[in-house]
Specification:
alpha/beta, two-stranded antiparallel ribbon, six-stranded mixed beta sheet, 21 helices, single chain, 600 residues, 4 domains
Length: 600
């Protein structure tokens, strides 16, 4: 390609991508402090050195003379750097090198000096032309990082011995056939390769959860805003409100996803429990997004901000975001417990049973309204009831994830835990149904019918749970659960209780918590009561008859621990001492010692 044409095309490309340049430079600086551009010495035509310009992908404190290869999932890459590397946007500043005459648009990719010391005869041919932004070798492999095998340790050695020879062979082939027509073919082929091999199925699967979480959080924020306006204007939204609400929703779609992304809410794994730290992050992200939204609205000269609606939204949003994540945990645990991921038959059975709960909700809804109105044809004349009934099916099907599969293995656990869970989920469903009526702005709903619907659905769900659990409860060979008392109220106790609550097994029963701090006597942790203090242990043994005491090593340092040990020996109670989190983090010992080999 003629030099004058390359100069014009590079100048035109720089003009077109200049807004993207500014955005990327700002993102790089905000992500990690330092100059957004990176200069690296490369070998150009006839072995002459030049400084190649790239966007900085790594923190500024990373030494420039370190490892000369960027590997797959390189830990040195910043958050923005990973994006630049994947989509090759870090190469855009090389257009300046084209204007300066150091590089061409199409040509062999320039290399750092230490790699040109290998295979000198091949490099002599390759360096007879100016290096380019786009190379012939990128057609087959636009991402060299994907060529390294899993578990590769010495990437530079692998690059020199396996990747570089094939790369040089292709670049020598280009030098021998170089023409402007070939340059156009390379440009088109590399563009197609980048589009088809960058956004791969594997890449999508890795980022699908993050994209889904960000999308769901955005939809939840829209729902929160709309509900807040409906709660403020309980008699129905006036027509004059719609233009303002439309503007608020449009701005929220631009502002709130960006705030959620900056706070990292999208990185929440569906299978994880909600910790206090993550809950605080949700609250902060919600408040900052609400503050940013109202601030932007003020700049748009929105005189009437409907402040009460925005305050209501700021209070609702963190609750909804937390509730959605609790729902994701319920979906994950329900699928895992039912064997959804093990076989196609198990997955289909699970989906059919969830649909059955939805049909039960539909049945209970219409039965309750028919009893209330005494005539079926009157119900058929009310179109809003049909819309509500479809919403009821969706609500009951979704909430069934908290009910299925039932886990009771004894009559006591069925009446004490399973029925309570059914009543709890049914009441949540009743509240969501009331919200549906609020959205439809129908003040003529029947409170008695909604209450009867909740009762009928609870009875039907209890029958289904009983039929499922009955074979397990009639099995006489089930061992009695171990009766456990926790000794200590540290963070380890909270983590253990939250874990046991999610496992929901009948192999143990938490009787309560014993504390060595007197003023915490009447408190509770994760819903479990503190049943006494250390001096009360002997009386507690006589009342609760525990099988096991679980405590932590910081309790062994107290003056009361010898008394606790003697008491456990006296009553035949086992005691387990668990290491603390700080001990596990500070320990340098090999906790797993393989068995010693014995000689025959």
């Amino acid at each position: 390609m003629p030099r004058w044409l390359e100069f014009i095309l590079a100048l035109l490309a720089l003009f077109l991508v200049s807004p993207l340049f500014l955005v990327l430079m700002l993102a790089i600086v905000l992500d990690s402090p330092g100059w957004p551009l990176f200069f690296q010495r490369r070998v150009g035509i006839n072995g002459q050195y030049f400084w190649m310009i790239k966007f900085r992908k790594m923190p500024s404190y990373v030494p420039p003379d370190g490892k000369g290869i960027t590997t797959r999932n390189d830990v040195r890459l910043t958050r923005v750097g990973r994006f630049l590397e994947r989509f090759k946007l870090d190469e855009l500043p090389q257009l300046i090198n084209v204007l300066l005459g150091h590089m061409a648009l199409i040509g062999p990719r320039p290399e750092i000096p230490k790699f040109t010391a290998f295979y000198p005869e091949q490099w002599k041919i390759v360096l007879s032309v100016r290096p380019g932004i786009i190379g012939f070798s990128q057609i087959k492999h636009p991402h060299e990082t994907d060529l390294y095998p899993p578990g590769c340790v010495d990437h530079e050695k692998y690059y020199v011995e396996h990747i570089l020879p094939a790369k040089l062979k292709e670049e020598i082939e280009y030098v021998g056939k170089k023409s402007w027509l070939l340059d156009l073919k390379i440009f088109g082929a590399v563009t197609i390769a980048l589009l088809t091999k960058t956004i791969t199925v594997r890449w999508l699967m890795v980022h699908l959860t993050h994209a889904f979480m960000l999308l769901s959080d955005t939809l939840v924020s829209v729902f929160s805003l709309v509900l807040a306006f409906h709660l403020v204007f309980q008699m129905g939204l006036p027509s004059a409100i719609y233009p303002s609400l439309k503007k608020v929703l449009l701005l929220s779609l631009m502002i709130r996803p960006a705030v959620f992304f900056l706070f990292g809410l999208h990185r929440y794994p569906i299978s994880s429990a909600i910790t206090a730290g993550y809950l605080l992050t949700i609250i902060k992200a919600s408040l900052y997004s609400s503050l940013a939204l109202t601030t932007v609205l003020m700049f748009f000269e929105e005189r009437d901000l409907y402040l009460s609606a925005h305050i209501t939204d700021a209070l609702l949003l963190p609750a909804f975001l937390t509730a959605v994540r609790i729902g994701y945990i319920a979906i994950h645990d329900s699928f895992l417990a039912s064997g959804f991921f093990r076989s196609l038959g198990g997955a289909l059975t699970h989906l059919v049973i969830l649909a059955l709960y939805g049909m039960m909700g539909f049945f209970s809804f219409w039965i309750s309204h028919m009893i209330r109105m005494h005539q079926l044809n009157i119900a058929l004349l009310i179109p809003k009831l049909w819309a509500v009934s479809l919403a009821v099916v969706a609500i009951r099907t979704g909430l069934a994830l908290f009910l299925w599969p039932p886990r009771a293995k004894t009559w006591r656990s069925f009446f004490g835990r399973e029925l309570f869970r059914i009543a709890h989920v049914s009441l949540i469903g009743m509240g969501l149904i009331l919200l549906v009526y609020l959205f439809l702005q129908d003040p003529n709903y029947s409170r008695l019918s909604i209450f009867m619907d909740t009762v009928i659905f609870s009875v039907l769900a209890s029958i289904v749970a009983l039929l499922w659990c009955l074979p397990q409860m009639s099995t006489p060979s089930q061992p009695a659960p171990r009766r456990v008392i926790l000794l200590g109220v540290g963070i380890e106790a909270e983590l253990l209780l939250s874990t046991l609550e999610r496992i929901d097994s009948d192999a143990w029963k938490i009787l309560g918590i014993v504390t060595d701090i007197e003023w915490k006597r009447y408190s509770s942790i994760s819903g479990f009561k503190i049943i006494g203090t250390v001096p009360d242990l002997e009386s507690l043994f006589e009342v609760y008859h525990p099988d096991l005491i679980i405590t932590w090593e910081w309790m062994t340092q107290s003056d009361d621990f010898p008394f606790i040990q003697k008491l456990c020996e006296k009553h035949g109670v086992d005691i387990t001492v668990s290491p603390t989190v700080s001990t596990l983090m500070a320990s340098g010992r090999n906790l797993y010692a393989p068995p010693e080999k014995t000689q025959d």
